[in-house]
Amino acid sequence: MLPKHRLNDRKKKQKIFYSGKKKRHTIKSQLVVDPRGKKIVCTSFSNGKWHDFRLFKESKVHFAPATEAIVDSGYQGLQKIHFKTRIPKKKSKKRPLSSADKISNQALARDRVFNENVIALIKRFKIIGDRYRNRRKRFGLRFNLISGIYNFEVDVPVICG
C-alpha cells in the first residue's frame, strides 16, 4: 500500500490525462504527413484534454510560407498563423452550409484522404486504435518507432520476380 502523499500525487498525474469528453484517460497524437511521399514528417503527443490547435502550437511545428497546410476542423485559428491553410467550413444552427461550401468541403476532403489513409495504416498497429495499456512515458517512443516502420515500408520498392 502506498503512503497517502504518494497516492495523491498519482491521482493528480492521472487527472491530467482524463478526457471529460471520452470519459477515460487519453493521449492525443498529431501527425504531419508529406502528401508527395506519403511519409510521416513529424509527430507530437499530449494529454487527451488538449485541443488539436493547442497541441499544434505547443509542438512548435512550423510550415514554410509557401507550403499549403490541409487540416481538419479541429485546427480552427491556424489560418491566422499560416496563411496557406485550408480548413473545411463549419455549419451552425442559424447558418447552414451553402452548396458552394459543401462542394469546397468535398474537394478538401478529397485532398485530405491521403492523411486519413496514413492514420488508418498507423491504427493497424493498435497503438491508437485500441486502449494503450503500457507506460505513458514510453508512448512517444513506441509511436515514433511505428512511424519509422511505416516510413521504411513506404520507401522500400516492391520487387516482383
Structure write-up:
This protein is an alpha+beta fold and 161 residues long. The protein contains 5 helices and 6 strands, in the order αββββαβαβαα. The protein has one domain (19-143). Helices cover 42% and strands 16% of the residues. The chain has a two-stranded antiparallel ribbon with strand order 1-2. A two-stranded antiparallel ribbon has the order 3-4. A hairpin with a 4-residue loop joins strand 3 and strand 4 (39-47). It starts with a helix and ends in a 6-residue tail after the last helix.
Major pleated sheet: 2 strands, antiparallel
Radius of gyration: 19 Å
Helix and strand element order:
HEEEEHEHEHH
Number of helices: 5
Instruction: Tell me the overall shape.
Output: globular
**Terminal CA distance:** 62 Å
Tell me the strand percentage band: 15-25%
The structural class is alpha+beta
Indicate the mean pLDDT.
Answer: 81
Short key terms for the protein model shown above:
161 residues; alpha+beta; two-stranded antiparallel sheet; two-stranded antiparallel ribbon; 5 helices; 6 strands; 16% strand; globular
